[in-house]
Design brief:
248 residues; 9 helices
């Protein structure tokens, strides 16, 4: 069956140069965006309940923009002045760049990984004497604490924000040829919003092994997967699939 409509379970891109817009134009498909999940900050009293004292840490491990935003939110609400000596370990260049929203980049000690947490852990290993704080959501990849424990560093997790299912009730009578997911939480949201969901002719695209597993564990068929050697991005995987089915 041909693909004419796609729903991406993420917010709409903020830049006009997004590859999704190129895909829509080149393949003549309609692409909508909708967050299936969203983030809510944890209250200060709940952070204190985790026995978190920001004075005890000399380094912060930042894995996402949400981690950056919520660390500085909590610091402000706790009236904690982040010292200039604080070290920041950012999982990617995108996270490090975003950090500039809160600190003067050239005056801080910032260490940047390439993209994955195992790559960042190599940098953390070189600073084993630091006391690390890991701001995170309530859903933390098991790989991260395992890596930190293996390094033998002094670290503590602080749950500063939570991943919450978005209300999608307005989509109840809307159907798409392809649904695109990027996390297991997106699949959870699908079934919490639509417990009776049946895949039928809907194609499902999933990014990453954990998302692919969540799709199959839910009894659904994963038709489009990424990343792969030939299609490292989701837009490339979608384009390859659409070219295959729409030419028939």
């Amino acid at each position: 069956m041909k693909v004419k409509t796609i729903l991406v379970s993420q917010p709409a891109p903020k830049t006009e140069t997004s590859p999704y817009f190129d895909l829509s134009e080149k393949q003549k498909v309609k692409i909508d965006f909708r967050s299936f999940i969203h983030v809510e900050g944890v209250a200060v009293k709940d952070v204190r309940g985790q026995k978190i004292d920001l004075n005890n840490f000399t380094a912060i491990i930042l894995t996402s923009r949400n981690a950056v935003d919520n660390f500085f939110r909590i610091a402000e609400e706790m009236r904690f002045k982040v010292p200039d000596s604080m070290k920041y370990f950012c999982q990617s260049e995108a996270v490090a760049y975003y950090l500039q929203k809160y600190v003067v980049y050239r005056k801080r000690k910032i260490y940047v990984g390439k993209r994955t947490f195992p790559e960042l852990s190599k940098l953390i290993k070189k600073h084993k004497d630091e006391k690390f704080l890991l701001p995170s959501s309530d859903k933390l990849k098991a790989l991260i604490p395992a890596e930190l424990d293996n390094l033998g560093v002094d670290w503590k997790q602080a749950i500063l924000y939570k991943t919450v299912v978005s209300d999608l009730s307005d989509l109840e009578d809307v159907s798409y040829d392809v649904l695109v997911f990027f996390s297991p939480s997106g699949i959870d949201s699908l079934f919490k919003n639509f417990p009776e969901f049946k895949q039928n002719d809907t194609r499902i695209a999933a990014f990453g092994n954990s998302t692919i597993k969540a799709v199959t564990d839910a009894g659904l068929k994963c038709n489009i997967t990424a990343p792969a050697p030939e299609t490292p991005s989701m837009t490339m995987a979608l384009e390859k699939y659409i070219k295959g089915v729409n030419k028939k």
